[in-house]
Design goal:
The chain has about 120 residues and is of the alpha+beta class. The protein has helices at about 10-20, 20-35, 60-70, 85-90, 90-95, 105-124; strands at about 1-10, 40-45, 45-55, 75-80.
């Protein structure tokens, strides 16, 4: 299953990490561990954002992609988006007919992302 991972990094904290040289080391270590197929960094909604394309053999691997970003000492939020090519080609009828066993995992990762946002805002 191929997923897009969006990681938003708080601008001020990330800028400080860039200046002190720790940002490259921390992100490099995460990318080395998670081995994404492609990585793009850009500005999104006023925050520094990374978009990673990751191919997972199983939805149970999602936490192994989320946790390194959550444990990053820089405030970071992450979210996932996935689609099966068959679902896109065959349309909504195929999606409705196909059971979604990954829903609870995706719900859990969404809750982790929400928790991270709440925690970051509580620190501010």
């Amino acid at each position: 299953m191929r997923v897009l991972v969006y990681v938003s990094l708080e601008v001020e904290a990330f800028n400080k990490a860039v200046v002190d040289g720790s940002a490259g080391q921390k992100i490099g270590k995460i990318l080395e561990t998670t081995k994404p197929e492609a990585v793009y960094f850009l500005d999104r909604n006023g925050e520094r954002t990374g978009i990673l394309v990751v191919d997972l053999s199983d939805a149970s691997k999602i936490p192994s992609i989320v946790e390194p970003w959550m444990l990053l000492t820089l405030p970071a939020d992450s979210s996932f988006h996935s689609a099966n090519v068959d679902n896109i080609v065959l349309g909504p009828a195929a999606v409705a007919a196909t059971p979604e066993p990954d829903s609870l995992v995706l719900l859990g990762t969404g809750a982790l992302g929400l928790l991270s946002t709440v925690r970051r805002r509580a620190r501010a």
